Amino acid sequence: MNIDIKELKRHFYDYLELLIDGKEESIIVLNDGIPLVKLIPFSKRNTKRIGIIKDEQEISNLSLEDLNSIPINDFGL
Questions:
Q1: Using CB atoms within 10 A as the burial measure, which of 8, 12, 35, 37 is most buried?
Q2: CA 21 to CA 5: how far, in whole Å?
Q3: What is the per-residue pLDDT across 12-47, written as a single tens digit (0 to 9) for each?
């Protein structure tokens, strides 16, 4: 969607709502037909965990070597 900057100023909240609700993927703001900026929403974060660590070890303290040393069968695979 392309809109003029004056239109954006008048209805800013309405355009933000379109982005937030996912009704528009992006909005290109124009000034006299010249593109100025592209507005895009932050993607929603995937909150699913992709793995677990046995005994709920603190992952922030583990190095890559520590993670690689965990046997696969500890994950029930």
A1: 8
A2: 21
A3: 999 999 999 989 999 999 999 999 999 998 876 554
